[in-house]
Specification:
The chain has seven helices and two strands. It is mainly alpha-helical. The protein has one domain. It has a two-stranded antiparallel ribbon with strand order 1-2.
Length: 188
């Protein structure tokens, strides 16, 4: 039983470690807005409308997309550097010595923003305002990063299951913390 528990905990840690670039990329647009203000806040949808409504809205920006890609690539680079240390090698599901940081960063950062943009597109069609709470969909942006990661690496099914179970809980905690720290205007 102890070995099973150890293996399960280790698998959870490995799954979370694999997804770190996605999680950080998901937070990157909020921090980019906080530190850059309205600079480089060009809307992804170029302010175009579809059926009289914004396609995505002004909060989905090129600044956010670029920040997500850069942050994801930096996290992958850090994982690649840490891969030389035995402890981090045991946490790694992939051989980071062979990873192209820019490719992984691009896929994971773009994936999380594409999922968020798709959600925004649907929210605009549902007449929900930008920033409005939309449970449970607000917690599923990580799926975009995971799906695009499949282009270069497909984790074992157990890892995918763990990611799908645990990942929706992380934005809830991160959003609450961001709200308490004054980084976000709302707690969701």
């Amino acid at each position: 039983m102890a070995k099973f528990c150890y293996n399960l905990v280790m698998l959870i840690i490995q799954a979370l470690y694999l997804m770190l670039p996605v999680y950080f990329a998901n937070m990157a647009p909020v921090f980019a807005t906080k530190f850059l203000g309205q600079r480089f806040a060009w809307p992804l949808d170029f302010n175009k409308k579809y059926q009289g409504k914004p396609i995505l809205g002004r909060n989905k920006t090129w600044r956010g997309l670029i920040a997500a890609i850069i942050v994801a690539a930096i996290i992958v680079l850090i994982q690649k550097l840490l891969y030389q240390i035995d402890f981090f090698r045991t946490l790694s599901l992939i051989d980071y010595s062979q990873v192209l940081c820019g490719v992984y960063g691009f896929l994971m950062g773009t994936g999380v923003i594409l999922a968020d943009a798709l959600k925004s597109f649907i929210k605009r069609r549902q007449k929900l305002k930008p920033g409005a709470r939309w449970m449970p969909w607000d917690q599923l942006d990580f799926l975009g990063g995971l799906i695009l990661l499949f282009l270069v690496y497909i984790p074992p099914w157990e890892v995918i299951l763990i990611i799908i179970i645990i990942s929706p809980l992380l934005p809830i905690a991160a959003n609450w913390l961001g709200y308490k720290l004054g980084i976000k205007k709302v707690a969701w």
